[in-house]
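=== Per-residue structure ===
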Amino acid sequence: MELRNGKKTDMYYLTTGYPLGTKIEEGRLIYRVALNGRYYPLIPVERRIWEAFLLGAYEEDVIGRLSEADRSAYQVTMQKFCQQTGLLQQLDEPAFTRLGELLFLRQGIGEGLDIEDGTYKILFRQQVMVTESEYEIWCMADGSTPCRVMEQRLSGGKVTSFRETVIRMCRKGLLIASGRE
């Protein structure tokens, strides 16, 4: 547990895998997620729960937004995602090191440094201004470089700052955890 807004909070989760969209398979509508060379089919309730964590979220916030029917399938679905498939990663403080195992893929088109105003920009749905360190992390997020390697190359010993930056970029949609080592 960690403090958020001065109170204890529950677990923070980040999705892993790349969303591929819906498909009819064996007469059923399924949603597919690619992770480490495999496709995982999700039934509608699983899709709604997985997507609720798509940009990273606290468990209490997600549970609060779910319908009663989805809440009844929540525990089984979370066990599938966290323990069987790895489609969700817990990011509590002791397990924060798991972030290093993840492979991130950048989203958007890099515009780079704007000489006039000295900011770095990425075009993703709209133009997003980022810091130089965020831009460097974004550039390295090629879907094959593990986060721990990016951290070693860029952080210069600022472990917490680096990891917080990665999570912040996920929340903006600029990075997606596309796989694990």
In short: The chain is about 35% helix and 40% strand. The two ends are 26 Å apart (CA to CA). The chain has a mean pLDDT of 87.
